[in-house]
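Sequence, please.
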């Protein structure tokens, strides 16, 4: 046993006080953190519109390789394309008429158009203007989903015939 127990007792007391302070500070820090709870894994749908696209529908991702010449009104309505991504090939001519073109990068980001005509290397849109589209802009062209199309109005169909 030490000849003078006071320094040992003071040192032990100081050490114990430090541990108590550390434990109190740590518990305050832990209490301030939100509880982490386990939740079941799930997919969250994200997008730029409220259209749910059937994953079985055909689509083409690509990149703009050249911008078409302006039409008679002075607006760009076509561009040349190159397929982009695994499994993508040049489209068959006239195969994408009526399909949806959505611009994914560039000034026209998020803009959607209907395809009026296409060749293996060029797309022309219907009733729209591609002004601002540029080489290296990325896009996706998707087959329309007949099941998601609004039902025809029987009265309008009868009056048309």
């Amino acid at each position: 046993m030490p000849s003078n127990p006071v320094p040992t007792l003071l040192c032990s007391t100081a050490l114990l006080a430090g541990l108590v302070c550390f434990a109190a500070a740590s518990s305050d820090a832990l209490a301030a953190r939100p509880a982490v709870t386990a939740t079941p894994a799930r997919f969250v749908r994200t997008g730029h519109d409220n259209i749910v696209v059937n994953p079985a529908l055909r689509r083409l991702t690509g990149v703009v390789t050249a911008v078409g010449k302006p039409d008679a009104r002075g607006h760009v309505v076509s561009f040349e394309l190159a397929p982009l991504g695994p499994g993508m090939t040049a489209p068959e001519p006239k195969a994408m008429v009526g399909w949806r073109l959505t611009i994914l990068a560039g000034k026209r980001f998020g803009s959607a158009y209907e395809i009026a005509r296409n060749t293996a290397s060029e797309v022309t849109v219907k009733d729209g203007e591609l002004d601002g589209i540029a080489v290296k802009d990325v896009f996706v062209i998707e087959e329309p989903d007949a099941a998601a199309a609004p039902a025809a109005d029987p009265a309008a169909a009868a009056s048309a015939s």
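The two ends are 113 Å apart (CA to CA).
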